[in-house]
Amino acid sequence: MESNQKAGGDGLAGTQKEAALRALMQRTGYKLQQENGQRRYGGPPPDWDGPPPERGSEIFVGKLPRDLFEDELVPLCEKFGKIYEVRMMMDFNGNNRGYAFVTFSTKQEAKTAMKQLNNYEIRNGRLLGVCASVDNCRLFVGGIPKTKKREEILSEMRKVTDGVVDVIVYPSAADKSKNRGFAFVEYESHRAAAMARRKLLPGRIQLWGHAIAVDWAEPEVEVDEDTMATVKILYVRNLMLQTTEETIEKEFNSLRPGAVERVKKIRDYAFVHFTQREDAVTAMNALNGKLVDGSPIEVTLAKPVDKDSYVRYTRGTGGRGGSLLQTDYTAYTLGQVRVLQETVLVPEYLMYKSVVIDSRVEVTAVLLDFIICNKNNWGQPVYQLHSAIGPDQRQLFLYKITIPALATQNPNIHPFTPAKLCAAVEEAKVHAAEHTLQTLSLQTEGAADASCATAAAVASVAFPGM
What we know:
This protein has helices at residues 11-28, 70-78, 107-117, 150-160, 190-199, 225-228, 245-253, 277-287, 360-375, 404-407, 425-439, 455-462; strands at 32-35, 38-42, 58-62, 83-90, 96-104, 121-123, 126-127, 129-134, 138-142, 164-168, 182-187, 206-207, 210-211, 213-216, 233-237, 260-266, 269-274, 291-292, 295-296, 298-301, 312-314, 324-326, 382-389, 395-402. It is an alpha+beta fold. The chain has four domains: 11-134, RRM (RNA recognition motif) domain (Alpha-Beta Plaits, 2-Layer Sandwich), CATH 3.30.70.330; 138-216, Alpha-Beta Plaits (2-Layer Sandwich); 225-301, Alpha-Beta Plaits; 331-462, Double Stranded RNA Binding Domain (2-Layer Sandwich), CATH 3.30.160. The radius of gyration is 24 Å and the shape is globular.
């Protein structure tokens, strides 16, 4: 075994575990190597010929017993397909960190394994938590001057980082000649993106003399083809603020009168519901790129995502403290939720998410993101969610928040990190936002009772006279 780290445990148990691992490698011919806080089994297999498996072939396996290793996990996963690689995250004591990444030879094998292994009882009373893993190649970069064009941002990112493939920039909702203060930078590989993220961490590099904030971008949610084949709702973005629902309905009914069932507009994007899918597809192809009130609109099929099915983990940078948990979901059926009309509560890169404001999570987010930070020109806060396994083997969550313009000015408080670990993601988010607000000495009393108000009303509660 090509590792300086023991498999875990001492004495007879440790010896038996090492013997089991040696037997596994002799049977399969795979290598086992220790590197950067993780142990890599395979990658590639000894008989592999060709490129690595396509994206989507990797799954996240969580809630592992800390004394479980490849000799137990590999035979279980082999039942569902050929294993390309297993990466098990390790701690300094030789135990696993409670999770591993398993890459199969095909995307279909990964989907089958994910379905069969989620909630699988691997030991008495110990159920696995298995979901999709995303090999992320895209970074979110906040704090970019709003006057910069896409070509300028692309050129600047290529100067300071390697492997840049593309830059995605969205125009401001209020002024289409400006960007929204952030961009998404696509890299040629996950490794290139990870190296760039490390180089661009707050305080190390400024762009055009401005402090920036960098984090992994939310991966685009994948929806299976069968589900997408039933969608009859269009997502329309890059609308003018003054464009009305009536104008949108008229445009999308122009091809076949009466085809549109209803329209829901939120700030500069909208969802257009059709009675028939064929009419939705025809309208998408015909109207994508058309000028509406002087702005070229972008039209795509909305992505329906089941909240319970799409918990996704993004591949991290070597097992330091766990992976980044993606827990923001798409919900394109807006009739069942209440929506803030005056602003967009969620980060702009979650552009398919509807806005539910029935909890103080969203109210706190609007206070921090779109009132305080925008008002002070601080740049959009970056939320980074970390997870850990508690003493009782429950998963706990903690958000860290970085505000771009303050990161270099006040490094002693950045990132804003609350001391409390929370049992729920929503609780962790609101706790982190409240901690940040308190650290900034901002008055937030009354905000939790404003969940049915518009953004303007929330602002008046927190900042009378603003």
